[in-house]
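As a warm-up, study this chain.
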Amino acid sequence: MFSILLIDDEADNLAILTSLLKDEYRVFASKSGEEGLELIHTVNPDLILLDILMPNMDGFDVLKRIKSDELTQAIPVIFITGLQSPEDEEKGLRLGATDYIQKPFHHGIVKARVDNTIALVRQTQLLEELALLDSLTELPNRRKWRMESEFAWHKAINRSQNLAIGVIDIDCFKRFNDSYGHAEGDRALKQIARFLKNKLGAIDADVYRYGGEEFVFIIESDMLVALKAELATISQALEQEAYPHDNSTVAKVLTVSVGVYIIKPQPFEEFSDAFDYADKLMYRAKYDGGNQVVIEHKE
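Now compare it with the structure written out below.
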């Protein structure tokens, strides 16, 4: 269900709008601009209905703050106002308002403007989801990995929590494509993606296709003994799936080499360095014969 944040200093307006929208949307209400700005980061609304005339901080100032914050600037804002001046409407639109709703409220117009804006939000979200999805494997792609891995890194710093960063590469996959053809190679990538999603998803890992025959994952966990034991079984579990690969120099089935770096991130450390180290561990697994998992834990 989409969410809407109402920011208006008049309780009657909040009550009317809440009653009108609550059956179709999750509605949150705030009685001041300052309170609304704080609430935005808590509820992450899909749409904001914002009054213009409020004490201390008016709607124009609130809108400026919303549009200057990278985390909130994409949220559409509809002004609700009794002002009739074209200059005020132009000012709001130039500051980034999506639309205007005039007071006193006409219920049908309020619903129509809100519904139309939410429809655009829905379309935008669908397009963004497609842009962050690998079309072949239906796993999140490299772009989404870059976004979410950095977020997970900073969250782990704030929570003083361990992260397991993993890099997975299919062994001898060029030989597979050369022998079986690229169509069969695509089918193999889909099968392995499905396997990894099920296997690693069971331990709350987020799995991504990084590119080519390479996958990556990240896990937030402090249950390190159990985590290491489960991660160590990845290559063996895939081998038991027995996807044929007669020209592999590792085994006669598809196998993977896996590098996992477990670290409790510190504020002075960079995610890119930890990821590069996990990649080096994957190559160590490959150079040591493949079909194995190399795990290193930074104590």
